Each structure stands twice: as structure tokens, then as C-alpha cells.
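Quick one, C-alpha cells below. Sequence please?
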């Protein structure tokens, strides 16, 4: 196989790997915007539960 063809195939494969990492892996990492929204919702729900518990006392 021609070395230029090999180089093109390797570069294409590397491009696919980078795309998959950026598209599917990075959003799962902590610090993502959706993760922050979820944490804020959990904090709000906890505060509401604590307020309801205080009123029940």
C-alpha cells in the first residue's frame, strides 16, 4: 500500500477518534452545564424539604 494512503487512513482514523471523544465523552465529564443544573435542582429540593420539616415542627 502506498505510504500516502496509509498516512491518510491513519489521519482519518485519528479524526474519528477525536470526534467520538469530543461528541460523547466530554459531555459526561463533571463540570458540564447540565450537571450544574442538576446540582442546583437537588440543592433547591433539599432546601424545600428542610423548610417543610421546620414548618411541621
Amino acid at each position: 500500500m502506498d505510504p500516502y494512503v496509509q498516512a491518510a487512513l491513519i489521519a482519518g482514523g485519528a479524526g474519528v477518534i477525536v470526534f467520538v471523544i469530543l461528541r460523547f465523552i466530554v459531555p459526561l465529564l463533571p463540570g458540564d452545564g447540565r450537571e450544574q443544573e442538576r446540582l442546583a435542582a437537588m440543592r433547591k429540593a433539599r432546601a424545600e424539604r428542610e423548610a417543610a420539616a421546620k414548618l411541621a415542627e
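The mean pLDDT is 85. The chain has one domain: 3-56.
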